[in-house]
Design brief:
Blueprint lengths: L5 H7 L6 E2 L6 H14 L9 E7 H16 L7 H12 L3 E8 H10 L7 H22 L3 E2 L9 H7 L6 E12 L20
Antiparallel strand pairs: 1-5, 2-3, 3-5, 4-5
């Protein structure tokens, strides 16, 4: 497959909710893409605080079953249908990327650079966002559709116990992916003249 150019990849990265467990590339290739992103995503003070777990197949399905049952405990039964359907749509994919930040690294920076202490949690979030975006765009380049989900902190403890997650890793996002089976809907854009200012 010819790699898409950067601008095309950025333009075509969308939230794809209709996915299947088919994959146009191998699990090894997806692992390679994720590892590349983790290695090269920018981080404040080169902290390299991003952590990732990639779940495939039954492990991926287990995550969304776990999330469904967690939500069942708090969503009224009469309203649970749409929630169950949404969890099923994520489970229908082939894998999920879990994004964490290592809070031990963040605390270490706070101690080492007390002048910036209050800023390091913010820097950590910014780094995580960039890592998530790189992975998302890279998956799109490989022919996969994905969305970004946030069921933390509801599922944190169960995820930690199920996949032996270190205590210092804080969950920030979940990205289910798979082969797109329906395109994203139309997207409207606000005028750039209202969003960008340029001074020459």
């Amino acid at each position: 497959m010819m790699a898409k150019d950067f601008y095309t990849a950025v333009q075509e990265r969308r939230s794809i909710y209709a996915i299947s467990n088919e994959q146009p590339v191998s699990n090894d290739r997806i692992q390679e893409v994720v590892e590349f992103a983790v290695k090269y995503a920018p981080t404040a003070f080169n902290s390299q605080s991003g952590r990732v777990i990639v779940l495939f197949g039954e492990q991926h399905e287990k995550l969304w079953d776990l999330t469904k049952e967690t939500l069942r405990e708090i969503v009224p039964a009469k309203d649970f249908g749409p929630t169950e359907e949404k969890m099923g749509s994520f489970k229908a994919g082939s894998g999920t990327v879990l994004f964490f930040e290592d809070e031990e690294v963040v605390r270490g920076l706070q101690e080492q650079f007390p002048t910036y202490s209050d800023k390091f949690p913010e820097y950590s979030l910014q780094s995580s966002g960039m890592l998530q975006y790189i992975v998302w765009t890279a998956l799109e380049q490989e022919g996969l559709g994905a969305t970004l989900q946030h069921y933390q902190p509801l599922i944190d403890e169960k995820v930690r116990n199920e996949w032996n997650v270190p205590a210092s890793w804080k969950l920030h996002a979940q990205m289910p992916f798979g082969k797109p089976v329906a395109p994203a809907g139309d997207k409207e854009f606000q005028p750039l003249s209202e969003r960008v200012k340029v001074y020459k």
